[in-house]
Amino acid sequence: MKRFGLFAALAFAVAAVSTPAHAARTDLTMGLVLEPPHLDPTAGAAAAIDEVVYANVFEGLTRIDRNGEVKPALAKSWTISEDGLTYTFALNDGVKFHDGSDMTAEDVKFTLDRAMAEDSTNAQKALFEPIEMVEAPDPKTVVITLKRPTGHFLFNLGWGDAVIVAPETADTNKEQPVGTGPFKFVEWVPGDHITIEKNPDYWGNPVALDTATFKIIPDPAAATAAILAEDVDAFAIFPAPEALPQFEADPRFTVVSGSTEGETILSTNNGKPPFDNLKVRQAIAHAIDRQAIIDGAMFGLGTPIGSHFAPHHPAYVDLTGTYPYDPEKAKALLAEAGFPDGFEATLKLPPPSYARRGGEIIADQLGKVGIKLEIIPVEWAQWLEQAFKGKDYDLTIVSHTEPMDIGIYARPDYYFDYHNPKFNEVMDKLAAETDTEKRYDLMREAQKILADDAVNGFLFELAKPGVWNAKLEGLWENSPVQANDLTEVRWTE
Q: What's the average pLDDT block by block, 10 residues per block, for the chain (493 residues)?
């Protein structure tokens, strides 16, 4: 019996040593508030597109990292001529698209030429306007010549709108995206989920995850329930800030409060009466109590803003005092504008909770000064078609999450329908300036012009409340660009 016991003990010890430790998970389910209208970042403005595919499925010559810095991506290095007009990029070796074809300099040329073309559907076509010419002298070299020095050119190439696509698949990327990234597209079940999987032939560092599923959950209560039940592993942008204390008290979860590039605004149709009247816009600005909106819609998460600029940027100017909350002043301005009894207008609200909840509060605030708003809830696709593309709106609420996007106010056909030659002149100077401090001075001047013109109701900078499983690491706390970059995400056990 003793000998048997000894053998049994030895056998158990050997088994214990030879049995592998519990392997860490390699799957991820991430909650997504908004469903993207399609999956081609070079042909759409919706942030939800990049939140799925940026750095995961598609890559650009450069990329923006979690700190907002420009890093090499498909281009391993580059040189810039002394006059700042010629950029020569050396491409990485062995890069292939997900269909197995080689990614070459000709694909880069095709992508940029396509984005610049007269019939381009790129939502950020202005990013490519400084380009004079793109050349591909050999398969691994791209030469881009600019019309003028452009201080933020490398940063612009890191946007999702500048990812590299192949001519063979460009027209079908909306439904079947084919990129060069570490993940490949698997399926999209509309209204439910989008799944991507590890690319075994990826040219760069392999990712830890084998699969990632983006689960579409627009309702805040449903998002809370899904996380608590662990049906969803993470919400990088959690839509129910009122539930955060519950998650903070639960050791199963990590809760972070990061920053975004999301200027949340009461977008105003400046080309449509009565909003083409400066005094009307000033009245709206005085009627808005930003802090009440932040407290009521975001449960205190958010930083008040007075212009279209992120508070964490070194060039930020606090202009919230330009039009302080003053309902009586708002009424007086409306009377001066010819509306002593106010007027009626519509407020179209897309699905995010900041818009739906914030819209109710703003409608109440403006109602107190005589502006009676009809609230019209719209789905995201409707908002893009009606407000963003068709300018068919009076007022709406949206967060502009693109990085350093103050230049949108200089675009002649943008949905604000705002036109100010003085502002455009400042933007032209900014585009050509390479000295950092001089660029910051121009940014400050631009902020002041927008604030004085009360172009939009500038509300708050969107916070980034994140909730995820405590065993996850590698998710971004902040959002310097619109992304759920999964390249460094892994389970710790």
A: 38 42 88 95 93 98 91 97 95 98 98 96 92 98 94 92 97 98 98 98 97 96 97 95 95 93 96 98 98 95 95 92 98 98 98 94 98 97 95 97 91 96 95 84 97 98 95 93 95 90
- Preceding omega of 200 cis (within 30 degrees of 0): no
CA distance 123 to 42: 7
Indicate the burial class of 119 (C-beta count within 10 angstroms; 0-12, 13-18, 19 or more): exposed
Q: Please report the sign of the dihedral spanned by the C-alpha atoms of residue 108, residue 109, residue 114, residue 118.
A: positive
- Of 392, 373, 365, 402, the C-alpha closest to 64 is 402
Could you give the C-alpha distances from 196 to 41, 122, 170, 486, in angstroms and in order? 16, 24, 19, 11
Query: For the CA atoms of the chain, what is the radius of gyration?
Result: 25
Residue appearing with tokens 């009307």: 280
Distance between CA 42 and CA 162 in Å, rounded? Answer: 7
* Cα–Cα distances in angstroms (integers) from residue 468 to residues 6, 287, 323, 453, 473, in the given order: 47, 38, 39, 41, 9
pLDDT (tens digit per residue) in 157-206: 999 999 999 999 999 999 999 999 999 999 999 999 999 999 999 999 99
